[in-house]
Specification:
By secondary structure, the protein is of the alpha+beta class. The chain contains nine helices and ten strands. The two termini are about 30 Å apart.
Length: about 250
């Protein structure tokens, strides 16, 4: 689980450096549309849609935009059909990278993602060339909680572990991927505030990057995340504090 802590810290460090977050609304709209298409437009009966709506609220997305995305997914409005694709590759320093996409044109997206890898000093790989270096886990972010109270409910609901996040009162509840929405539902019923609930790739053995490789890897992640079809990027690297200090300077 420590690899996830390191990756979360890197993500926060990147944001502190002003790294682009990409077109957030576009990504969330795609996720809402796909979730509604696969499980229907009622969030009470569609756990994936509930998770997407959490992201929409966190992004301050207008309700009419959310409703249009749901209706496009259910077919009430005309919309684009998106396909879920996962790409794997390597970045500078041999870092393993997993990229989750939603696309309406598989060939276009593959070509553009491959180009981003190549220009970033990496290479796109075959299926299973990177995912074996990660654990697939459900991650539920809970805010405004105490560890003891959260631990009791989460473990009873089937959670694997709980870890404190950097922000006081915020915790991450780890589950099996198939259990994430069941556990999140139990936490909601117990009046815990859920900020995010989704399956993620957590790195097993992060690669420490030096002052030469670290900026290149951060740039590669930024460019991948900026692509409209990319929903999530996971990578198994860490940057020592002294190296991050050099980059900040």
């Amino acid at each position: 689980m420590s690899g996830h802590n390191r990756w979360t810290k890197i993500k926060r460090q990147k944001e502190a450096m002003g790294a682009s977050k990409g077109n957030l609304f576009t990504k969330v709209i795609k996720e809402i549309t796909v979730a509604a298409r696969m499980g229907g437009g009622d969030p009470d009966g569609n756990a994936r849609l509930r998770s997407a709506l959490l992201a929409a609220r966190a992004a301050n997305m207008p309700n009419d935009t959310i409703q249009r995305a749901i209706k496009k997914g259910t077919g009430e409005l005309e919309g684009v059909s998106y396909e879920e694709i996962t790409y794997e590759g390597r970045g500078p320093g041999g870092v393993a990278v997993v990229v989750e996409c939603l696309t309406d044109n598989r060939n276009r997206t593959f070509g553009e993602i491959r180009t981003i890898f190549t220009k970033g000093g990496g290479s796109i790989g075959e299926p299973n060339s990177a995912t074996y270096m990660f654990d697939r886990r459900g991650v539920i972010t809970v805010t405004g909680a105490t560890e003891d109270a959260l631990m009791e409910v989460a473990l009873d609901a089937g959670a694997l572990d709980i870890q404190a996040a950097e922000e006081e009162g915020t915790f991450e509840v780890l589950t099996e991927p198939t259990e994430v929405h069941k556990v999140a539902g139990a936490l909601e019923k117990a009046s815990f505030k859920i900020a995010e609930a989704k399956s993620k790739y957590l790195p097993q053995n992060p690669v420490a990057l030096d002052a030469e490789k670290a900026p290149k890897m951060l740039k590669l992640v930024d460019n991948l995340e900026d692509h409209d079809d990319v929903q999530n990027v996971y990578a198994n690297f860490e940057i020592p504090d002294e190296v991050m200090g050099q980059i900040d300077a």
